Amino acid sequence: MTYFKHIQTFFFAAACCFFIASCASDEGSTPEEEGYEPTPLDLKVPVLFQQTISSPVIPGDNPQTVEGVALGKKLFFDPILSGDNTLACAGCHAPEEAFSDSRQFSPGIDGIEGRRNSMPLFNLAWNFKENFFWDGRVNSLEKQALEPVIDPVEMHNTWPNAISNLQATSAYPELFSKAFGTSTIDSTMVSKAIAQFVRTLISGNSRYDQFLRGEIELTEAEQNGLDIYIDEERGDCFHCHGTPPNDLLWTDNDFHNNGLDEIFDDLGRGAATGDPREFGLFKTPSLRNLAYTAPYMHDGRFETLEEVIDHYSEGLVYSETIDPLMKAVGEGGVQLTEQDKQDLKAFLLSLSDESFINNPDFQEP
């Protein structure tokens, strides 16, 4: 009898274990357990992008997830990554300025200004050439997110110190656990989370987008401006900024010397590559959201769109690396009439997307 009692006890215990394990499996694994997977999240790609542009670049080792984007957003707006806990990514990339900075140069935590204007952040998931910053010195959004933290002019921190601060909080270890399955934080995961959030910053609802969707008509000035934009004898903008309606990024994501200077204080792309043929070349910025991204050019030298248009009309300066596309440099520029300038400005402003800068998903949590 004793033998059979032991057998019964064994099978009862085994059944209990099986029942408990089954219940645990039904509820899903926890972040710290092997096999945990965060929740996949698709980017909200505008229909026009789906129809005209290739799929966005999502690294295989950093897929978009609900938990990763939420963590990246919190990190983006949190000054905890800076050396004195006073400067967040959003301090130089403000949502209301299309994630750029209205100041010519952004000051870091020590009050020292950089030497280039803060680039706007949107539609970066379609940077197919994977070169970031004005000089393209890094080749992924994840690597870009690493640099400002340790830049002595910007956040002026060290990664060990930044990680130590994050690890010591009550909130971040759990958020990293949910996003990446471990509460042990490192810089790679920080950069991945921020990159996931930045990839969600999609702008595709400007007046021109609405026109393409058949929802509105362009004004006469905007339509004239579009004609000037694609006219090689006048604006000739499309070679670097794309040909509508099939290139809605409004940038070729390439590098050009657009005739700003005869002598370079900043070598731009050439400083990153060491190639003299690339001295004075800078990345083409998108023309989207120009209503919110002044000042303009890599060094923010132009405060208004009028100044930008005047530059291409009669302000071009020759240098050895000037882009062949600046073919009117001998005459100083394309010599637009005053009416052409006004209409071109009207069209360029039609590329601004008010719904993007007001999107609640992109505001400080």
Core attributes:
single chain, 365 residues, mainly alpha, two-stranded antiparallel ribbon, 2 strands, 37% helix, 1% strand, globular, disordered N terminus
Structure description:
It contains 14 helices and two strands. It has 365 residues and is mostly helical. Helix 3 (66-77) runs antiparallel to helix 6, helix 3 (66-77) crosses helix 7 (187-199) and helix 12 (305-314) packs across helix 13. The relative contact order is 0.13.
Radius of gyration: 26 Å
Give the helix/strand class: mainly alpha
- Helix and strand sequence: HHHHHHHHHHEHEHHH
Mind summarizing the main beta sheet? 2 strands, antiparallel
Mean pLDDT, to the nearest integer, reads 93
Within the largest sheet, what's the order of strands? 1-2
From the N-terminal CA to the C-terminal CA, the straight-line distance is: 67 Å
Percent of residues in helices comes to 25-40%
| Low-confidence region ranges | 1-7, 9-28
Count the DSSP helices.
Answer: 14
Shape: globular
